[in-house]
């Protein structure tokens, strides 16, 4: 019952995001991100796509917050990790939708790893920002504001 309810919630959220986007570059980016939800049955992947679509809808760039790397390019990930203020790193195997590892990074330090999903990483990061009394990055101020009010 819960899985069906969650799936319906994801479909409703996708519909709402697609309905709100009027077209143009932003609308095309949202459609592109949400098109993955039609191909994937994994609820965590669907939620990740909806979160990315929401960030785009709020005129912010999800690629500045979510960093994706292939498992073979861990050196690149480690190098970029050192310069990251706040973010979520996703390591995937080549051609695989399921992430191999998901990490939360604060001020260049991997504070959490082996999280089950990007959404769990997002929630844990918000908790850490609140507990550590940090400020959310300026480039995601609308996403931060939306998430705190929801």
TrEMBL record:
Keyword Membrane: yes
Keywords in alphabetical order: Membrane, Transmembrane, Transmembrane helix
Keyword Transmembrane tagged: yes
Stretches that traverse the bilayer: 111-132
Protein name in the entry: Uncharacterized protein
Organism of this sequence: Perca fluviatilis (European perch)
